[in-house]
Amino acid sequence: ILMPVVSLSPVFSLQMTKSVTNPEELGGLASQMTNDYGHLALQGRMAAATAEPEEIGFQIRTRVQELGHGCIFLVQKAGALQICPTDSYTKRELIECARAVTEKVSLVLSALQAGNKGTQACITAASAVSGIIADLDTTIMFATAGTLNAENNESFADHR
C-alpha cells in the first residue's frame, strides 16, 4: 500500500507546484495522480478492512477519502490553470492545493503506520527468533566438531 502513497508524496506535489510555470505539463501530472490515487484507494480499502483495532481502519479509510478530496481540488485547479495560464490567483490556489495534498499524504502515512504496529512487532520477534536459531546452529556446529566437549570423555552426541 505504501507505493501508491509514495507516488502521491511531497515530491509529486512539488512537481505539480513547479508546473505552475509550465501549465502544459499539468495534464500529465493530474492523470498520473489520478491513477496513483485509484491504486491507493483500492489498497487502502483492503488495509482498512484488515486493520485492528477498528478505529485504525476507520482512520485509514477517512484519511484516504480526505486525500481523494484534496486530489480532486488539485486536479480542478490544474485544469483551471491550463485554461488561463497567466492567472496568478489560480496559480496560488494550485500551490495551496498541492500543500494540502502533501499534508493529507502524511496523515495517510501516519494512519498506516499506526495500523502497522502489530506487524512490526511480529517482524521484530521473528528477527529475534532467527538470531537465536542461528546462535544455536553455530553452537551445535562447534559442539559437533568437538571444540565444546567437556574435559572428561563425554561428547556432545551423548547429550544431544
Automatic annotation (TrEMBL):
Domain Vinculin-binding site-containing as annotated: residue spans: 16-117
Record key words, sorted: Cytoplasm
Matches recorded under Pfam families: VBS
Location of the protein in the cell: Cytoplasm
UniProt keyword Cytoplasm, yes or no: yes
GO biological process, one term: cell-cell adhesion
Gene Ontology molecular function terms on file: actin filament binding; integrin binding
GO cellular component, one term: focal adhesion
Gene3D superfamilies in alphabetical order: Alpha-catenin/vinculin-like, Talin, central domain
Protein name: TLN2 protein
Source organism (scientific name): Neopipo cinnamomea
